[in-house]
Specification:
alpha+beta; 12% helix; elongated; 2 strands; 57 residues; two-stranded antiparallel ribbon
């Protein structure tokens, strides 16, 4: 059973929100880890602002 988990969702440039998403089911050669803390770097800010040509929304 997949319970919802919290995730940062970037739908489009300058559109960032925290929402519930289904918890993924790992395959036999994968692991699912619990993240307790995270951070962002300068490149992440460019992606959020829509300044990265490599970003997919």
């Amino acid at each position: 059973m997949n319970f919802p988990m919290r995730a940062v969702i970037i739908d489009a440039p300058a559109s960032i929100r925290v929402g519930d998403v289904p918890e993924p089911t790992p395959r036999s050669d994968e692991l699912l880890i619990r993240v307790e803390a995270c951070g962002i770097c300068g490149t992440d800010l460019h992606i959020i602002d829509g300044e990265s040509p490599l970003a997919r929304y």
